[in-house]
Amino acid sequence: MVKTTNFKRLSDSKFWFGAHVSASGGVSNSVENAFNIGCNSFALFLKSPRKWESKPYTLDEINKFKDNCKKFGYNPRTEILPHGQYFINLANPELEKAEKSYNSFIDDLKRCESLDIGLYNFHPGSSLKGDHETQLKQLAGYINKAIKETSFVKIVLENMAGTGNLVGSDLKDLKYVIDLVENKDRIGVCIDTCHTFAAGYDLLDDEYEKFWENFDSIIGFKYLSAIHLNDSKTPLGANRDLHEKLGEGYIGLNFLKKFVKSQFLTNIPIILETPILKDDNEYGEEIKLLEWIAYETPSQEEFEEKIEKLQAKGAKSRKDQMDAFIIKQKKNNSTSKKRAILDNSKDITEMFGKKRKTDK
């Protein structure tokens, strides 16, 4: 990743805009990487996301991380949001695999506490072929166990884009798990805007307020601990976890106008996970875009020009994804019709079968 100092950090921002940055070469490097692109918060992987086990941190690396947080002005208890490994699945009905996930999970939490990091975000997993409610209880059980084995780090559940057995596509899943967590001070929620939109929760126009009213009634704002701020390559309800750069996807920039007026989103990490093609400088540019919308009050003409420019950049991708979405919908509708015909045929067969038996 290319380092730069062109993106000055807006230290008095009430919105903690940031990004997922590289920790290559040592976890302590993540702090300077975040500072160089103007982050007010940031995310990182605590270890390799591609393998189950990684070497423990050296004391020297831990001290460098803490020193860098002081040097560059980050509070690790509130402004840093590590992301758990994607293959952790504490809801897995196969106990051996769930235990393997837990070992990686608890290792992450202990790494957080060694670095004095106060938040930890992860994907809540999938119940796979198990009973969904049973696996939600298992997930909560592992969280309770982890809380007892650690001291202060808050475990942050992320909402998801898929449907069915994937935990967290429905906000009620997260509520169910939170209700079973014994220490409510150690549990929170991260809302990913791409996942939200893909799961079928509209964020555009008046639906923006309705979503947050829904969130508050189901989960409660007191549990809102972070945001992953991403546009969506796919249309509403596509159930695909495909992040897009801000303004180039189906959510667009108008959503951000409402976003930066939401006081309940202040003083929590707001993390970009949008695709970067070259280096982290692209995150710096997007952070400045967010600050432009939030603090520079662009004219309507300027804003519309920005919308047109970014929508044009993402036009081909949106078309490709919409075409794929339509094909998928047609296939699903065809399958549903075939099932309905088969079910109807089965009902008729059973009805006439019973009648023949009665006639005898």
Automatic annotation (TrEMBL):
It comes from Hanseniaspora valbyensis NRRL Y-1626. GO terms for molecular function: DNA binding; DNA-(apurinic or apyrimidinic site) endonuclease activity; phosphoric diester hydrolase activity; zinc ion binding. Gene3D superfamilies: Divalent-metal-dependent TIM barrel enzymes. The lineage of its organism: Eukaryota, Fungi, Dikarya, Ascomycota, Saccharomycotina. This is Apurinic-apyrimidinic endonuclease 1. InterPro entries: AP_endonuc_2, AP_endonuc_F2_Zn_BS, Xyl_isomerase-like_sf, Xyl_isomerase-like_TIM-brl. Keywords: DNA damage, DNA repair, Endonuclease, Hydrolase, Metal-binding, Nuclease, Zinc. GO terms for cellular component: mitochondrion; nucleus. Its cofactor is Zn(2+). PANTHER family: APURINIC-APYRIMIDINIC ENDONUCLEASE, ENDONUCLEASE IV ENDODEOXYRIBONUCLEASE IV. GO terms for biological process: base-excision repair. HAMAP family: Nfo. Residues 32-290 form the Xylose isomerase-like TIM barrel domain. Belongs to the AP endonuclease 2 family.
